[in-house]
Design goal:
This protein has 131 residues and is α+β, with helices and mostly antiparallel strands. Helix content is 30%, strand content 32%. The protein contains four helices and seven strands. The strands form two sheets. Strands 2, 3, 4, 5 and 6 form a five-stranded antiparallel beta sheet that branches. The longest helix has 13 residues. It starts with a helix and ends in a 9-residue tail after the last helix.
Length: 131
């Protein structure tokens, strides 16, 4: 009899562990849907992220220059590799309208092997896997 653990962790079933911090989910926010679209499209076109999801307006509450502020923002979640993080962060800082944009990277510790292979291939600067 095969246990649930053995079935769920067999090759091709469920999320596989990812070696080290090879893949990242990078989060930023911006003040308009158009700005979010521009950040996402620019990062994907430049092969700094394989894809990006833009969340509907969110309410952000934060302290800025000594005051508590509330703003309507759009979240952009980008998937990339650790090797492309610095270039992606530089792109966000350059293309972003904020003085201090939020740029938070979270390691992807588990994920579908085929999906992560696609992410790796899409962020290769030459467009060719392993190049």
């Amino acid at each position: 009899m095969v246990s649930d653990f053995d079935r769920d962790h067999a090759p091709g079933h469920g999320p596989a562990p990812v070696p080290g911090d090879r893949f990242l989910a990078v989060l930023t926010t911006t003040d308009s849907e158009a700005a979010a679209q521009s950040l996402a499209r620019g990062a994907v076109e430049a092969r700094l992220a394989a894809c990006a999801q833009i969340s509907s307006p969110i309410a952000s509450v934060y302290r800025w220059e000594g005051r508590v502020e509330t703003a309507r923002e759009w979240q952009v979640l980008l998937k990339t590799t650790a090797a492309r993080y610095e270039a992606l962060a530089a792109h966000i800082r350059t293309a972003h309208g904020y003085d201090t944009p939020e740029i938070i990277a979270t390691p992807i510790t588990h994920g579908d092997e085929e999906y992560l292979a696609w992410v790796a291939a899409e962020v290769e600067p030459s467009g060719e896997p392993g190049a």
